[in-house]
């Protein structure tokens, strides 16, 4: 995979350490000097500064302290974040619900990390 020259900011929201590690590794290997921030609970997400900007948000479907889809609603309405959200879930039923709440792209688990990177490239271009 060719490294992208521009540095981007990524927010990974997941309490799953394996999920976060896989995404981080692929971001680091695919892009030049990415800034990666992780939140592993709803309370850590609430602690985000209002002026923090992210180019892509990668959201695992469940997180401690929030109901499914509550995180998307929180990002879109409380934090006024318009950044593209890539939503990951192991249930097909989540696709439409996640999109209704504001997710831009959906990946069913298990997912192919290189496909996620392709989608990120497409969003950034």
UniProtKB/TrEMBL annotation:
Residues 9-124 form the Response regulatory domain. Keywords: Phosphoprotein. SUPFAM superfamilies: CheY-like. The keyword Zinc does not apply. SMART domains: REC. InterPro entries: Bact_response_regulator (IPR050595), CheY-like_superfamily (IPR011006), Sig_transdc_resp-reg_receiver (IPR001789). This is Response regulator. GO terms for biological process: phosphorelay signal transduction system. The modification 4-aspartylphosphate is found at residue 60. Pfam families: Response_reg. Coiled coil: none annotated. The lineage of its organism: Bacteria, Pseudomonadati, Bacteroidota, Bacteroidia, Marinilabiliales. It comes from the Bacteria.
């Amino acid at each position: 995979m060719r490294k992208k020259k521009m540095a981007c900011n990524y927010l990974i929201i997941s309490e799953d350490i394996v999920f976060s590690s896989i995404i981080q590794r692929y971001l680091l290997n695919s892009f030049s000097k990415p800034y990666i921030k992780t939140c592993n609970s709803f309370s850590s997400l609430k602690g985000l500064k209002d002026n923090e900007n992210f180019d892509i948000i990668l959201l695992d479907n469940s997180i401690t302290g929030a109901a499914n889809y509550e995180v998307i609603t929180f990002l879109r309405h409380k934090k006024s974040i318009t950044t593209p959200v890539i939503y990951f879930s192991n249930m097909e039923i989540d696709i439409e619900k996640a999109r209704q709440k504001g997710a831009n792209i959906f990946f069913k688990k298990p997912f192919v990390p290189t496909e996620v990177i392709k989608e990120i490239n497409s969003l950034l271009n």
